[in-house]
Every structure is written in C-alpha cells, then in structure tokens.
C-alpha cells in the first residue's frame, strides 16, 4: 500500500480511500498499526474541522430513521456527512446496528455521505481507538459533520461523549415513569435531548415527554460550557422530517458560542488528554496478558485460591518480580529534546 | 511494636489488640505495610471461620438501627460480632456513618461486639484492602459473624459483595415505583432482601414492598449457589426486634447448604483470585504516579493537548520508554521453587 497516495486521496475527499484507511486503522496486526500511525501522523496539520456529534439512543427510539433523515437534510444543504458507530456488543450480536446499510438506504446512496459500521471487536478500548482514528480520517477527508452513534451499552456513552463536540440523546415518547429509565449520568452529558416520533398518534405523548425532560434539565446545575437556554429538549419527527433543521440550527448556535468563548478548543484538548491517559493505562494492563507475566500470574492465582498465600502478598511478589518500571528511559528518546 | 505479642493477643480474642492491628493495616507508611504483611502472614493457618455478611442500604432505611438490633440479637445468643464499614465517601463527608458510635450505643458497649468505622480514605481501592485485612484479623480473633456494611456509593456494593459470604440488601417500605430506585445489578447480588420498618404505620406498606421484591426475585434466573427458595425477601423491624432471628436462621440455612455443596469454599477462592488480580492492576497503575514516569506523562499530556502529537503516539512513546516489563524475573524468586 502506498501511504503517500492514500494520504493525498483522503485529502481529496475520496470515499474509497477513506474506507481503506479505516480498514487499516481497524487492523490489529503490528505492521498495520505502524502504517496507520504513519498515515495519521502524515495527515496531521490540515486545518479542516468537522462538527463531531455524538448520538445515543436505545433500540426502538428510531435511531436509524433519525440518522437517515437528519443526514439527508444535511446533504440537502450541500454538507458532507460521515456516520460512525460505537457498538461494543456488535461482536456478540453478530453484526452492527449499522451493518445493514439498507436501514439507511437513501443516505448510503448519497454521494455526500459516508457510512461505516462498527468493527466486530468486543473490546470497547479497541473500538474507541479505532473510532477516534476514523474521526481524524473523516475530518482530514473534509467532512462537515461526523455523527458518532451508540446504543449506550455499558460505558459506550462515555466513550462517545469523550470524542464528540456535542452530545445528543434520542428518546421515544413514553409514559410518566420513563424519566427513570434513562441511565444515571446520561442527562448530565446531553447538550440536546431529542424526543423522536412526534408524529401521528404519538405526537401529544412526545410533547408531554419533552416537557418532562425540559423540566428535568432545568433542575441540573448550569454548566460553564453552555449559553443561556442549554442544554434543551425538543421534539422531532424523523418520519415527517420535522424539527430536524431546527435541531441543526441549535447545534450550530451552541458550537459557535463555544468556539467564541474558548470552550470548544478546551474540550478537544481535554479529550485528547483523556485518551492519552486511557491508552497508557490500557497499554500497561495489556502487558499483564503477555508471557511470562501471564503464566506467573496464573500460577500465583492458584496459590491464592487454595490459601497458600494472600492476594496482597501474591500481588506484591508479581509486581516486584516482573513489573519493575524503568526509571531511566531510553537515552535517545525525543523526550530529552 | 512486638508483633508476636500482638499476634497472640489477637488469637486470644482481645479487642484492644484487634483495634491496634487494624490501625496498623490502615496505615499507608511502607514500614507499617511491611509489619502488617508479617502479622497477617503469621496469623494465616488458624482454623477459625466467621460468617462474613455484607449489608447494603441507602441512608434512611434504618441501617444503624438494624445493625444494632441484629448485632444484639446475635450477642444475646452468645455469638461474637464484628461490624466493619466500607464507605468511600467518608473522607468527603467528614466522617463515617459509623463514626458516631452513639448510634449503636447498646452494641458498642457489648463485650461480645467490636465496631470499627470506615477509615477516612477517599480511594476505594485502599478501603477495600484495609477491609479485607480487617476481616482476616477479626476472623483470627475468633469472631463468629462479621457484618460489612456500605451505603452503596459508586462501586462499593461490588467491593463488599466480593468479600462477603452472604450479601443482604436492606430496604425501607415505599410506593409502587420504588423497585426502579434500586441500582441495577444489586438485586442480582442479594441473597436476602430485608424490608425494614415493618412496624406501626408502615407495616402494611412494608408487606406490599416485600411482596413486590419477592415477585421481582422470582423473575431472576436461578443461581447454582442457591437452594430452592433463595434468594428471598422478608420483612423485619429493627425497632420491634421482629424477624431478626428468622433472618439469621435463613442466613445459617443458606450458608450451611453452600458449605455442604462446596459453593462456600469456591466463592472464597474466587474472591481471593479477584482481589489478587485487582491488586496487581492497581499496583501497576500506581507506578504511573511515580517519578520520572509521572513527569514524562505530564509533559506528553501538554503536547497531546496542543495537538503536537496524538494520544496514541504519545502513549506508545511513554510505554516504550518507561514501561517495559521485565521478562526474566528475579533469579532468586520463590516462583522458581
């Protein structure tokens, strides 16, 4: 693979080159990881910036329909839209929620759109890194908006929020006790709450649900990164294409305000630090799974289980024996510079 | 401090020696950690076994009153009872829920009881290790039952369940939607659900709440470690001392069955392995907070924040430079034996 060629085709906005580059960053092979790092390093420094929009919604809220309608509304304005998925359960369920592109038939045939399903990895850390790198690639390829969607299994909402400029929560109309069904902490992450299916028989239920959430949002403490009136709740209908332009206007208003006030850049910087620290921790823990450490650990675990030693003593022994950290560093490291 | 003397006084069941030993295991000083490890190693091999009972309940369910009444019921039967607390929030709230022993005035004056508040550490990992070691000490001192209580902040319920033979969930009577207020996953951990305050005006509400939970428990899949009829829900009144003996009988029935069937020992072995792995991970991550790694990490974080490098590249650099793991091991390690 010619990396220079791939790089210029990505910068030219070619979707096939983008797809190929994402396949490269998804690969677990050491050789591919090296090439991916080189490519990403080569692409750094372009001045393109997409609006990264995280979107969470449980199955049944009409997420695919929403993304299809919202995406087509954006491409209708001449904007280029990429859709990525973070779905840690895809390995188990045998396919991503986006795997079936037929669910977004119109959008997937749109030349201004790019849809990429979640890779089949069960490890959330792996999915997170791949998605962050795919976001960088889409941004380099000149996309205007990147939608990063998740079903919200386990920690995946946090993962998506930590790589998004804006975070949307998509809900369906429901009875009075539905407020309790939203996972703790998700309300606090949302910049916009969209109550979908505000059409037909469900319209009045959607309006009531929206009012409930608007009330709940007012109870939360004001965040420094929000202008007056945010976060807010609104109704939309993906089926009838209503409320979608208004939602996009609000998203632009919010991100413009944050750019002016310095919160936009500050959030991206904080996210970069978060992922750096997460990768260091993960890389360190991955070393426990390598021989001979993993073998010694298994042997000690048996001793701990049968009571020959205590968990604390066994852990000290393993840490002392194998996990001494170099305190000198390599002499030729660029850190010295 | 004479460790041999301390050891024999603990084995003789002296509460002052036990208190002193727990202070030792709570200390963060390296010298004290070494002594604590020696003491625990010296105490290993006694054949005493307490029933370790985890207890979770949010503020307002009457946890202190329950522990007081339940503990006095046990000492009334001639049993020795220790009470420990796992409260990760104690550092913040300026004192453990058990800090004020006056809340358990009768029990704290009982010569057969030993009450120890949660240490003021904000770090749940530290509280967990201290509590496991305190459990070992109480067991060596010949206590029959060890109650480990938590308010259930964050992950503290999992921490307590991973060091208990039985796990109790204490609830207060409430309206119909209270089922939803119980944190996801807690129901699955409980061996007994006790609905407290089944007295006076609240008696019928307690009976209804108990029936709701009994119904919910029937919906859960049967666990291999449970005989027919478990987990179960029942009403108690700490105020009127009703239901407490029955709860204790059930706890004994359940633990006797598990001992006969081999589940009791298997659970303790699995817990030992869990804590061993947790301590290895924590010890490894603690190395990131030491110089020069922490300094290099801070410098790289700044570069990541201002976009000079990517999170992935910076993490690789740090891992390569400082976090190489020894693949040889110390030649004189007991692992060779």
Automatic annotation (TrEMBL), chains A, B:
Question: Keyword Ribosomal protein: yes or no?
Answer: no
Do you know which Pfam families this protein is assigned to? MeaB
**One Gene Ontology term of the molecular function aspect:** hydrolase activity
Keyword list, A-Z: Hydrolase
Q: What SUPFAM superfamilies has UniProt attached to this entry? A: P-loop containing nucleoside triphosphate hydrolases (SSF52540)
Q: What is its EC number?
A: 3.6.5.-
**Top enzyme class:** hydrolase
InterPro entries recorded: GTPase_ArgK, P-loop_NTPase
Q: Keyword Transferase on this protein?
A: no
Q: Give the similarity note.
A: Belongs to the SIMIBI class G3E GTPase family. ArgK/MeaB subfamily.
Entries under PANTHER family matching the protein: METHYLMALONIC ACIDURIA TYPE A PROTEIN, MITOCHONDRIAL, METHYLMALONYL-COA MUTASE
Q: What is this protein called?
A: Methylmalonyl Co-A mutase-associated GTPase MeaB
Q: Organism source for this protein?
A: Thalassococcus lentus
Lineage, broadest ranks: Bacteria, Pseudomonadati, Pseudomonadota, Alphaproteobacteria, Rhodobacterales
